Amino acid sequence: MADDSTDASAVETARTQLDRALDYIDIPEGIVEELREPHKVHRVSVPIERDDGGRDVFVGYRSQHNNVRGPYKGGIRYQSDVDVGECIGLSMWMTWKCAVMDLPFGGGKGGIAVDPSDLSEAEYERLTRRFTEEIGEFVGPKRDVVAPDMGTDAQTMAWIMDEYSKETDETTPGVATGKPPVVGGSYGRAKAPGRSVATIAREAFDYYDRDLDGATVAVQGFGSVGANAASLLEEWGADVVAVSDVDGGIRDPDGLDIEAVKEAGDETNLVGDYDAPETVENGDLLTLDVDLLVPAAVGNALTSENADDVRAAVIVEGANGPTTITADDVFAERGIPVIPDILANAGGVTVSYFEWLQDINRRTWSEERVNDELEAEMTDAWDAVVSAYEDNDDATWREAAYVVALDRVTDAHEARGF
Questions:
Q1: Pair 373, 194: CB distance under 8 Å
Q2: 276 — phi, psi (to 5°)?
């Protein structure tokens, strides 16, 4: 077995997943070749003045993979290791994610190679506004809609929207989603990715005739996705026995009080000072004997080095790309279902679509309506993937989700005459 313990690039993983899905669906070769590459990739320099009067220049990217079904759509991340390959791979996943959810968007992704913890708030704002100036001609509510990702948040999106609006001399909330509700954001957007992970976990347990009430759950990554998924799973009766952040985790075999864990944490120490019976390292959390494992932290968490040691009955991906190709093969051989990221964490882009609609129509939905609409969209998408899974005897859940996405993207290409 090949060793994939080192970080595989997102673009290589995305292309391999695409190639594997082609065993189950017939797509014209010309469309396949187009889908293996982004339509456009923009690289920009982003100079800013530091608080001490010095100047630094950062590098930013925006990959626009495919827009046959609608405007490009995807997050902006600020991380020191952001590079062009990562942005391309993530934009490919966004194309599939939007298609699985049957949203009228294509895939985009971008970011700046910067450690946001090295920036003051004023420097962060200046960086964001300058980046918006540099990419302003490439984005827009009908062209490419941005959203928050790792290292960015609702305030970042508000600054992007404001700067874009200045440049176009028109208030344009639809250029970015994930904004604060006071400037056109949607209620329920921040919790949506975690809510969708929990919803798909519930549907998967029902599919396998497993009882979620009393099921044990381990969540790697107690950020926005993991924490909100944990809260909802606990509300539905599951026992969340372990959670972690970048510095490590905590464990209680009898189940943690998730709301108390949230209250004990802060922005840098997510699991905080919660008085748990045990501590657990991130790597060890992945191999706990639990009913459900949710890798919601980073990519390439599950690899050839630890896949044989994973004891979870079901894996539902909360992060983007947490499972390497080789680990996927191990789980398939062992009969451990892996519900893929492009379905499970698609609540974020789905509620972003709701926000985009609200901005266009200048109408605000209640959080109850948002959650009800999200529930309907997630269960419809689940049903479509189940059909593809059952129609292809040896397909994995990931390959089934790709079949749904590729079928829709291909139909759009052919209908438009591409």
A1: no
A2: -95, 155
pLDDT digits (tens, 9 = 90+) for 249-305: 999 999 999 999 998 877 667 777 788 999 999 999 999 999 999 999 988 999 999
Instruction: State the pLDDT at residue 5.
Output: 46
Domain boundaries, the chain: 37-174, 192-344
Among residues 124, 10, 125, the alpha carbon closest in space to that of 63 is found at 10
Residue 73 designated active-site: no
Contact 398, 338 (CB under 8 A): yes
56: its two tokens: 């630094």
Q: Give me 334's structure tokens.
A: 């062992």
Spatial CB neighbours of 174, under 8 Å, sequence gap ≥ 6? 141, 145, 184, 356, 359, 360
- Report the alpha-carbon distance of residue 336 to residue 316 in Å, rounded: 11
Domain spanning 192-344, CATH class? alpha beta
Domain at 37-174, CATH class: alpha beta
Per annotation, catalytic residue among 40, 73, 97, 109: 109
- The confidence band for 4, taking pLDDT boundaries of 50, 70 and 90, is low
* Short-list 305, 149, 153, 319, CA closest to 221: 319
**What does the pLDDT read at residue 2?**
44
CB 79 within 8 A of CB 61: no
Q: Do domains 37-174 and 192-344 have the same CATH topology?
A: yes
Q: Is the pLDDT of residue 6 over 70?
A: no
pTM of this structure: 0.94
